[in-house]
Amino acid sequence: MQRNVEATELKDLWHRFKASSDQRARERLVVAYSPLVKYVAGRLASALPAHVEEADLISYGLVGLISAIERFEPEREIRFETYAIPRIRGSIIDELRTQDWVPRSVRARAREIEQVNLRLENKLQRAPTDGEMARALGIDVSAFNESLIQISHSSVAALDELWAVSDASGDRFSLLDTLEDPQAADPVRLVVAHELKDRVAASIAALPERERLVIALYYYENLTLREIGEVLGVTESRVSQLHTKAVLRLRSHMSDGDGDTPAGELSRARVP
Fold first, then answer.
1. Phi-psi region of 257 (alpha: psi -120 to 50; beta: other; left: phi over 0)
2. SS3 of residue 167 by DSSP
3. Does residue 54 contact residue 42 with C-beta atoms inside 8 Å?
4. What is the CA radius of gyration of the chain?
5. How far, CA to CA in Å, does 189 sit from each of 85, 165, 194, 270?
6. Of 74, 99, 124, which residue is a domain's last?
7. How many whole angstroms from its chain centre is CA 85?
8. Do the beta carbons of residue 94 and residue 260 sit within 8 Å?
9. pTM, whole model, 2 decimals?
10. What tens digit of pLDDT does each residue of 71-102 get?
11. In which domain, by residue range, is 214 found?
């Protein structure tokens, strides 16, 4: 009964806001859906440097939530949570990017390498070599490797980026279904985590063997780059290059070829 009442109340708030721009209804919608902002901010905070405050992320995300409420069209019969989560996350990432210390040239080079990698993989039906990548970029192999080092030193993102799920099923559920129950697993997180795990696993499986091994040793075995270098018999710098290439390949795979993963970032947080 409580869920029916909650769903009815939300429906009434949406009707009042969309029909007459009722600001009181808008404020109540913001409060009602604010747990979504905390959920998104919490996920992003775990993959960001320690100096980034979660409270700041929440304030950035509220801007995205308000924008989503104002632009949402209930008559389209999609879940508001599905519509709002990418916009909340995008709002946070956009604000973080305005504070980014990384040179634009490095970001641009990373995007270029992702796009070239994807294009060559589609053409060759295999992972391109360093030489093939360098030729496609119009640089020599040493310059390509230097670019990988610069990107590895500046990235704040990696494997996970991919956490919102598009859904055109038209299923409806109340806000209570998005709130965390201390006694039960959050179904939204379970669904997103399961699909993300499948996509990441498939993308990792497609990596060249040495890059796949670096990913496994770094994220699953928690070895340092130096320790991985000792295992592989190469320098720490070479391991860093292999790691960066693997991350860029994963980003290009998981972007489905459009050059933009959700929020445009991947998380470098290690697997527990």
1. left
2. coil
3. yes
4. 21
5. 12, 11, 8, 18
6. 99
7. 11
8. no
9. 0.39
10. 998 888 788 888 999 999 989 888 887 766 56
11. 104-160+197-264
Encode burial over 76-115: b for 16+ CB neighbours within 10 A, e otherwise: eebbbbbbbbbbbbbbbbebbeeeeeeeeebbebbbebbb
Number of domains in the chain: 2
Can you tell me the distance from the alpha carbon of 61 to that of 53, in angstroms, rounded to the nearest whole number?
13
CA angle 20, 26, 32 (to 5 degrees): 140
Bridge partners (DSSP) listed for residue 267: 158
Q: Could you report the per-residue pLDDT of 126-180, keeping only the tens digit for each?
A: 999 999 999 999 999 999 988 888 777 655 443 334 333 444 554 544 444 555 5
Q: Which alpha helices (DSSP H) does the chain contain, by range?
A: 2-20, 23-45, 54-71, 80-98, 104-124, 130-137, 141-154, 187-205, 209-215, 225-232, 236-254
Kindly list the distances between the CA atom of residue 15 and the CA atoms of 20, 32, 266, in Å, as whole numbers in the listed order: 8, 15, 37
Q: CATH number for the domain including 206?
A: 1.20.140
